[in-house]
Amino acid sequence: MSILTLQGVSRTFDGLIALDAVDLSVEKGEIVGLIGPNGAGKTTLVNVVTGALRPSSGQVIFDGTSIGGRKPYQIGRLGVARTYQVVQPFPEMTALENVMAPAVFAAGASDMETARQKAREALEFVGLADSADIIASELTLAGRKRLELAKSLAMKPKVLLLDEVNAGLNPAEIDGALELIRKIAASGVTVIIIEHLMKVVMTLCTRIVVLHHGAKIAEGTPEEISKDEQVIKAYLGKRYSQNIAGKADANG
Amino acid sequence: MIRILISIIVVAAIAMLPLLGDNYLLRLGTMFAMYCVLALSWNVIGGYAGYPSFSTAAFFGLGAYTGAILQGAGVPMFAAWIAACLSAGLFAVLLGMAILHLKGHYFAIASLVVAEVLVEIATSWTSLTGGGMGINLPVLRISVAAQAQLFFYAMLAAAVLAFIMNWLVGAGRIGFALQCIRQNEDASSMVGIDTTRYKVIAFTLSSLFVGGAGAIYASWVFYIEPPDVFSILLSVKPIVMVLLGGAGTIFGPVIGAFVFIVMEELVWRNFLSFHAAVLGVLIVALIFFLPNGILGVIRRRRAARSTEGAAS
Known about the structure:
By secondary structure, chain A is an alpha/beta fold. Chain A has helices spanning 42-50, 72-78, 95-105, 112-126, 141-153, 171-186, 198-204, 222-227, 229-236, 238-251, and strands at 2-13, 16-27, 31-35, 57-62, 65-66, 80-83, 159-163, 190-194, 207-212, 215-220. Chain A has a six-stranded mixed β-sheet, sandwiched between helices. In chain A, helix 3 runs parallel beside helix 5 and helix 4 crosses helix 5. Chain A is globular, with a radius of gyration of 18 Å. Chain B has one domain. Chain B is built from 15 helices and two strands. The two termini of chain B are 30 Å apart. Chain A binds chain B through residues 50, 52, 71-73, 76-77, 81-82, 84, 88-93, 100-102, 104-107, 112, 151, 155, and chain B through 173, 176-177, 179-180, 183-184, 186-195.
């Protein structure tokens, strides 16, 4: 059964079409990659799913209920979490307090002590347990990205949308982040990830969806996508696909 | 625990004030209690939630007129005060739903205009409010000294209630939600906080006891007129007090109110002809040099000492 379904979802800004009748169906437990050139509508799609924007038309169905046009806090409480392209901490709070907020308000912890416990678990999970008492704005960028993940996890999400979590990280940090995302997926959370680093998408995702000018132009396994003519033309470029093909030949 | 003990001792000490038998001090004590109500109330919306509200004067004046009109109609004084709290609260709910989606300067200006609108209404609705002539309140048939004590204790009770409200907000769920909203409103709604609801709650809490204080003030001075109870200073002073003491803290507003009233009195006595200018310069200087308020300085000292201790 699919956990998240988009049916003909469109979003326009003063006549500019940011999302053009997108159909998408995400199964439980998948890691779906969302790729496309800048301005393709990837972040708009995340905003529509999480309630930051209303869809101009079409249906968003999460876990059997229609959520199109609901408020972000309502959608968050249902079990849809996200991270932002630019990290969004509560800058003056400690890491622990940052993670307590979703535990209290989204996951509905009965009291502060329970929330603190849940927050510690989430920080532990993302490897930030030692930084629990550090003020969020003083964490490193990699630390703040992990903090965002911990905040999302404290919401007890069923679906997690990651908007370029790896942007700005160095290769070692990216490897750490990849491992973490796998761990999150393994814990039973469905993951939708926007990413520009093809290495990440190709190794991590079970399925890839390509957006271009707001419309879905392709969908399939990483291998299918890397050979898709339209995708190569719109996004990947000739050289990349030849590289991939070359590697495949060498391996085969 | 220690903080609760200190609070009780301070309140008890202030409550002894009438024993000194000094009417000047008693008047000052009543003003201090009133300033505490205004500052503690503003702290909820301006300190915790970070919404710079200039509506305090609107709530105060509305409460004063509600109290005055009801008392004029024969409603007992105490019931009129409660009704003033409720009318200010109800007004805040409606006003909050209308303007709390505005942010920063826009919210500040919208909240500022409200008092001006109410002044116009109070001035032109002569049949109800007496217009520019103001309203006289029924005179109490007790001695002047007994009146002074009655209004002192009434104001002190309002201040204690506002203090408890401020404390409960700060220590609980509402305060946590408001701090999240202040630091990052978009992220707040993403982690499941119904931001509109919490902002309206905060705005309403910031109005209740201010309305009550307005009504107590009206009963105390026996006569109110629009420019007096809707004065812009009633909106500005509590902001200065909270910034002085420490915004978004439990004790900051009280400390700020105390420092402010002491300054106000000293300046008033020594610079009679240009006291407003001197007070203004003092306020600018204090806020410039104490950006996080008096509590902020104490906290930083303490933090510095504890890190030194850890290092050595």
